[in-house]
């Protein structure tokens, strides 16, 4: 009974799967730049760096269709993304970590067992491999099974941010993550957080039998992909973002705070070498986005309009 262990081979990135806000829209402002690429220059920079708004449910090939993107990829030495790094991380000692199954309620246990039986023909009942899984490993197993049958970019194992990281890594260039490594080393002192984390993992199963399911919960991902390709963005760089309902998750960080947290690392990197900062497009919008925050620090951030390669 090795099916559950087999699905653990997926790369776990620690991506934030919170709902996307301020995404491509049908009728953007005419003055809003129709591009995903921005040049960062000025202040004390000897060479420009670049800011790229990505879509976590899109393939990287669309980016490669544009000559300006290819030029940037060839002329930057370092990559900053939300979740990927070429730096080695020390793994937690598994023996001290909480196992997932004892933390489940009876209802959650039955839901999870039925899910795995339906998807891979093997459940968690009387399964030593499942019993040995930590909370994080169980979440990885759930997400891997959910995305295994998808033919489209899934935001976990196939998406443009990951492909960009692999490109830099394969060419011997360095990359660093902007978000902190999420806390997942749950032990006996963090049982409540572990239960909350596991409950959130189980929520991904909801509606997963529908063709439109995706890990971000976007109702019409195909339409969002279309708007992204058309670059229908309403950046509203002089506006405050629309107030959003914040998640109650114990590890939730609002997008505005994440953007602010990234700026010191971005400035350190672009001050020493030409970099590409590739983050979800929603992080670029409004006065609280990365574009405006860099401008507030005295940098020139200007749009680069894209043309298709012949």
Can you walk me through this structure?
With about 300 residues, the chain is of the alpha/beta class. It has one domain. Helices cover about 35% and strands about 10% of the residues. It has 11 helices and 6 strands. It has a 6-stranded mixed sheet with strand order 4-3-5-2-1-6, with helices on both faces. Strand 1 and strand 2 form a beta hairpin. Helix 6 runs parallel beside helix 8 (about 190-205). The longest helix is centred in the last third of the chain and has 16 residues, at about 255-270. The radius of gyration is 20 Å and the shape is globular. The chain starts with a helix and ends in a 6-residue tail after the last strand.
Layout of helices and strands:
Elements: H1 3-6, E1 37-41, E2 49-54, H2 61-64, H3 67-75, E3 78-81, H4 106-120, H5 128-131, H6 135-148, H7 160-170, E4 174-177, H8 191-203, H9 221-230, H10 255-270, E5 275-280, H11 290-296, E6 300-304
Parallel strand pairs: 2-5, 3-4, 3-5
Antiparallel strand pairs: 1-2, 1-6
Helix pairs in contact: 6-8
């Amino acid at each position: 009974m090795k099916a559950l262990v087999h699905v653990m081979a997926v790369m776990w990135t620690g991506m934030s799967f919170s709902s996307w806000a301020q995404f491509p829209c049908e009728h953007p402002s005419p003055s809003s730049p129709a591009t995903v690429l921005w040049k960062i220059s000025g202040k004390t920079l000897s060479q420009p760096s670049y800011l790229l708004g990505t879509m976590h449910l899109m393939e990287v090939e669309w980016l490669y269709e544009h000559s300006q993107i290819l030029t940037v990829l060839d002329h930057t030495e370092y990559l900053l993304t939300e979740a990927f790094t070429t730096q080695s991380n020390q793994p937690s000692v598994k023996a001290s970590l909480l196992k997932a199954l004892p933390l489940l309620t009876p209802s959650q246990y039955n839901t999870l067992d039925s899910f795995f039986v339906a998807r891979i023909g093997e459940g968690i009942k009387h399964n030593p491999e499942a019993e040995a899984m930590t909370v994080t490993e169980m979440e990885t197993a759930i997400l891997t099974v959910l995305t295994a049958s998808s033919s489209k970019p899934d935001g976990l194992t196939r998406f443009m941010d990951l492909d960009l990281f692999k490109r830099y890594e394969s060419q011997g260039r360095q990359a660093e993550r902007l978000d902190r490594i999420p806390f997942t080393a749950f032990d006996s002192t963090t049982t409540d957080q572990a239960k909350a984390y596991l409950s959130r993992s189980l929520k991904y199963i909801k509606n997963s039998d529908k063709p439109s399911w995706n890990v971000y919960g976007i109702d019409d991902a195909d339409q969002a992909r279309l708007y992204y390709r058309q670059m229908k963005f309403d950046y509203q760089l002089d506006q405050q973002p629309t107030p959003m309902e914040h998640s109650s998750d114990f590890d939730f960080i609002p997008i505005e705070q994440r953007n602010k947290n990234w700026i010191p690392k971005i400035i350190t990197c672009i001050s020493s070498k030409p970099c590409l900062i590739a983050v979800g497009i929603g992080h670029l919008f409004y006065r609280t986005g990365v574009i405006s925050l860099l401008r507030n620090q005295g940098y020139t951030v200007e749009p680069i309009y894209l043309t298709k390669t012949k």
